[in-house]
Amino acid sequence: MKKLLYASISLVLAVGFCIRTHAQVIVVANPAVSAGSISKAELRDVFTGASTSVHGARVKPALLKEGPAHSEFLTNYVGRSPVTFIMSWRGLVLSGQATMPRTFDTEAALVDYVSRTPGAIGYVSKSAPHDSVKVLTVN
Amino acid sequence: MRRLLTGATLAFALIRPGSAQSIEDLNIQIYGYATQGFLYTNYNNTFYAMTTNGSPAWTEAVVNMTAQPKSGLSIGVQARYQLLGASGNSITLDWAAADFKVNDSFGVRVGKVKTPWGLMNETQDIDPSYIWTLLPQSVYDITTRNADLSHYGGLAYGAIEPGTKAGKFDYYIWGGEQVVPADDGQFDDLNNAGTGPTSPLNFTTIGGALHWRTPLPGLMLGASDGKENAGSVELHGGSQHFAPWNNVSWFGRFDHKKWMAGAEWNRQASASTLSLDGQPSSPENSDARGWFVMASYKWNDKLSLGAYRSDYFEKQAELGPDRYTKDWTASMRYDFNQFIYLKADQHFVKGTALSLDSFRNPSPHPDYLLTAMKIGVSF
Questions:
Q1: Nearest to B338 among A56, A86, A99 (CB)
Q2: Contact B323, B314 (CB under 8 A)
Q3: How far is CA B47 from CA B79, B121, B186, B271, B346, in A?
Q4: Which of B180, B182, B160, B164 is nearest to B172 (CA)?
Q5: Is any Cβ of chain A less than 8 angstroms from the Cβ of B29?
Q6: Facing residues of B221 across strands?
Q7: Chain B touched by A76 (CB under 8 Å)
Q8: pLDDT digits (tens, 9 = 90+) for B121-168
Q9: Looking at the complex, does the CB of residue B60 fall below 8 Å from at least one CB of chain A?
Q10: Angle at the Cα of B130 (from B62 to B254), degrees rounded to 5?
């Protein structure tokens, strides 16, 4: 009985760990973007519409519509939940202060857009194919 | 002139010398929302509606379209249907503007643009962007907001970062003309008395605002000042002459994890002379001061809770409940998903200085409860 209990607890912890680390999001950019790294504050500014440049060069944020990488990126780098995030962007868009960043259904589509759009910057899970884009280090 | 300015702005922005662009290149976007509200008061009829019976006469629908013909340039137009009690029930132009952002330090927006005074003026009519069913009425009075929301003209804006440890300063400088339709709700009392304006109220506005994004993450402190000049307004059976007045605000906001706190103090003091046919001219002075403090907490991904205290004083009014409105409010917002939400406020109001027209409130009660609910869909 004890063995069964330990096995169950181990399984739950293992599943929980897998779920927690499933996405492991990375920040990707068009290969022409000169910056090799970006700070968390710069990421937050770009993805909340407060800034449109990194190290003086214009950038275009690209978003995923949903999914674990989307949630993890918003929580860890932007500090907002998906609902709060979209709420604040709607405020900017509907008051004429900004246009909504391009949003993609799949990571492959986002990577494709980033790879062929100068200045584009986005995020995908580490496991998603991303050979055609540049990975930025987040400080 | 205003139509010419708006039309020319959009046409200029759309016409690009050189090659044609694909629809995808233009990045055309369409967004909008619709809300249906319900208002109930135990005493007093507020917002031009018979709210003591419960009133669903509170509807808004907004749609906008934007395009980005080239990097840094965006153009857009937004239309709104609004019904609030007996006012509105028409489609109006919210804004129509071309925005050119040279870089983070400098950008310009021209056309009919939102006026960025105070903490929330640019978004006070964008319901999906906040948790409150009604914003603090001491500063963002829904019955008079059409005079404040936007102006025909321009706006320069940008962010300055003087040093890595000083944070950033967002600046806004604007100028142009504000227009309030003669049948706007705020003239309800005058129109019911037969002495309303004969034509839209036009007044020039210039102003500036500064938002300091302090080194403490999430803390913003700001101030704004706008100078308004209405001149003379022709009324049925008379006229009213206004001296220029200022719209001054001091405000701040702090966001930390699931918490948000905000505060604002606003003053608008104006002096005018009312001249009605067959009567001697009389001074109509006003010194309106409003402030609020608010806080909200995001309980989980769907539920947000909040509360605020909102006080308004008309310093030129006689002592008594007509001189003030004090409002304790508890709020909740529930987001079913990214598109549909429900909001509810419970207001505990003392005083009758705001939102109660004399036509529907011949003897207003000094204390009352207001329940406000809204369901919204945004896309």
A1: A86
A2: yes
A3: 22, 19, 10, 25, 16
A4: B160
A5: yes
A6: B212, B252
A7: no
A8: 999 999 999 999 999 999 999 988 888 899 999 999 999 989 878 999
A9: no
A10: 145
